[in-house]
Design goal:
The structure is a homodimer of 373-residue chains.
Chain A lengths: L6 E5 L6 E6 L6 H6 L6 E7 L3 H13 L4 E7 L8 H13 L7 E6 L1 H13 L6 E5 L2 H7 L7 E3 L2 E5 L7 E5 L8 H18 L1 H16 L2 H20 L14 H10 L9 H18 L5 H13 L16 H9 L4 E2 L2 E7 L5 E7 L1 H12 L2
Helix pairs in contact in A: 3-4, 5-6, 5-8, 6-7, 6-10, 7-8, 9-10, 9-12, 10-11, 12-13
Keywords (chains A, B): Amino-acid biosynthesis, Aromatic amino acid biosynthesis, Cobalt, Cytoplasm, Lyase, Metal-binding, NAD, Nucleotide-binding, Zinc
Family (chains A, B): Belongs to the sugar phosphate cyclases superfamily. Dehydroquinate synthase family.
Organism (chains A, B): Rhizobium alvei
């Protein structure tokens, strides 16, 4: 265990400030880190059937060594688990475990487990302490930080949830070694996003060093820490997404629509892949609106393609619905105000901004063009 | 319409401060009051089958007159509606109605509709604007003020929910004329509670004027306004129940246990009746612990009895479970910290305080004595 390269990112939210620890061996050390911060002796651990075989026993042993009793619940893996039904199951499990106010609910898994568990922790007894142990790159750099929780509805993704900040995030960089290449890449899309929002230097660094980030070690921990810090800075300034925080949705409006269009079928498209295509579309749309150069869109596309991410809608296996239906999915997305469309667009590399008056007709013609319809 | 006797109580919560308007004719005037505060033109109205026939049409007409389109949902009446299933239905209805950020969700009904609807409004798009139009005395003086929302679980009452403050509360005093005597009395238990917490003068005033409060007119509006102000003051100081706000639970720990013991069967016991019995028990238990005089317990009992409220467990129709089971329900109640029992006890008339180290054994012997077992 090399703790020299461990990083600590602090999310500054007043009396709800918390640490994100990033580095190797953190699951094995979880008990100590948790016991140093929380007094409770009962913890519900929510995980999924893919993660449990690898990390549930090491985690519960580490907690047991500190005298903390665990109550595990293993759910099916996959986006479909972010449902009302599983939300009910988790709430019931936490209540049955008699988790009290100094105890906590632990999410051990990727974004799905984190979002679902955080929502349950946010509503059981109107708010229970909550710890994130993200096991995917996507969850480590994005969903585990910032307190957004939720489930999907038949009307769209993440439409039901609460803001509920964790008390601690443990991002164990070792666990990423067991991720599939595809899953790691999907998380990398969010890493690249922070560069494209407002860190042109970071994006350039990624263009030159992405292979080291994929390989592991210090470059990877650095990329995760820069990403967490970028998100923590935005969240500290705009916890409830009244303005600035919307920038984090770069690539997500198109991305969510594509996820909905593929019925959240991970065989066809996972979230990070949707974001990758969405970021390219956002840059292309910015060029079309004469906000940024087409060269920038090509540069972004080239980098995401180099790491092996999909960059256009025709790379999605199977049929896509017509442009009208994608637009319908976009208007049902959260980022709609008074009927006008809100998109994150850009004026240059790392110069993203919130455009809240995008004409639906422009989006429709753009999508038609891109779909070749 | 006599607006001279209308009262306005302001809940001081910074940028989430809001008005509670109390007086006659407010449902007919709802459109104007809402349009003066919110820009949105789409409102979901959640109500129940008892309330809808009387007030849904006047409300939607009043909103239509201001160009506001309504999307009504009529649910079954009764405590069982505070379930996961109906929560899902309400969330889905609000999403289907495409309620956006300047629009609102309106709860038109008693505490059940208010708690359920507020919870849904608190989680749809991670928080949607919310208006309370309480139609019972209980909801007007208690549940519609302060932002506590939630549903019941098989583990207990109100165990799942969020804090979500309304943007406006319209307490139309005319609607109380159509309440049954039993329902009005149940709400009156909460009115008396504010006196017993820390307003001895108000309790004395009620002892002398309760008949006018029951009759309607200015005394009733005054009693509602004093109650709302009392609650608003506590909520402004302790929105999330970290301390002071717990005082509002006077009578509720015993009361909730009795509600659970009667399976929330309103034929046997409604919430306010549980609170009435619970307040008498809390005063009797305070006397038993040598904190207050037995005379005070008798005085409280005499007043609640005079207005027609039940004051002892043997007035509840049907069998009650043994004392051990009631204690079990109390320990599963929200107000438990580190295994110790928290009760609101009193040192005198209007001198309630939070006792967080009550020995379970004392509660058990007290309950055994009271049940005559």
């Amino acid at each position: 265990m090399n703790t020299e390269i461990e990083k600590n990112v602090r999310v500054e939210l007043g009396d709800r400030a918390y640490d994100i620890l990033i580095g190797p061996g953190l699951i094995a050390r979880a008990g100590r880190e948790i016991a140093a911060r929380l007094k409770g002796k009962r913890m519900a651990v929510i995980t999924d059937e893919h993660v449990a075989p690898f990390y549930l026993a090491p985690l519960t042993e580490s907690l047991a060594a500190e005298g903390i009793q665990t109550f595990p619940l293993v759910l099916p893996a996959g986006e479909k688990t972010k449902s009302f039904e599983h939300f009910m199951t988790v709430c019931d499990h936490v209540l049955a475990a008699k988790i009290e106010r100094n105890d906590a609910v632990i999410a051990l898994g990727g974004g799905v487990i984190g979002d679902l568990t955080g929502f349950a922790a946010g509503v059981v007894r109107r708010g229970t302490r909550f710890i994130q142990i993200p096991t995917s790159l996507l969850a480590q750099v994005d969903s585990s930080v910032g307190g957004k929780t939720g489930i999907n509805s038949r009307h769209g993704k993440n439409l039901i949830g609460v803001f509920h900040q964790p008390d601690l995030v443990l991002a164990d960089s070792d666990v990423l070694d067991t991720l599939s290449k595809r899953e790691f890449r999907a998380g990398y899309a969010e890493v690249a996003k922070y560069g494209l929002i407002d860190k042109p230097d970071f994006f350039e660094w990624l263009e030159g060093n992405w292979q080291s980030v994929f390989a592991g070690g210090e470059a990877r921990i650095n990329a995760i820490a820069v990403s967490c810090q970028a998100k923590a800075d935005v969240v500290a300034k705009d916890e409830r997404e009244n303005g600035l925080r919307a920038l984090l949705n770069l690539g997500h409006t198109f991305g969510h629509a594509l996820e909905a269009a593929t019925q959240y079928d991970s065989a066809r498209l996972v979230h990070g892949e949707g974001v990758s295509i969405g970021m390219v579309l956002a840059h292309q749309f910015s060029a079309r609106m004469n906000l940024a150069s087409p060269d920038l869109a090509r540069r972004v596309e080239a980098h995401l393609k180099a790491v092996g991410l999909p960059v256009s809608m025709d790379q999605i296996p199977g049929e896509l619905p017509p442009a009208e239906q994608l637009l319908e999915a976009i208007t049902q997305d959260k980022k709609v105000k008074g009927g006008k469309l809100t998109f994150i667009l850009t004026r240059g590399l790392g110069e993203s901004f919130v455009a809240d008056d995008v004409p639906a007709s422009e989006v429709l013609s753009f999508l038609k063009e891109k779909l070749g319809s």
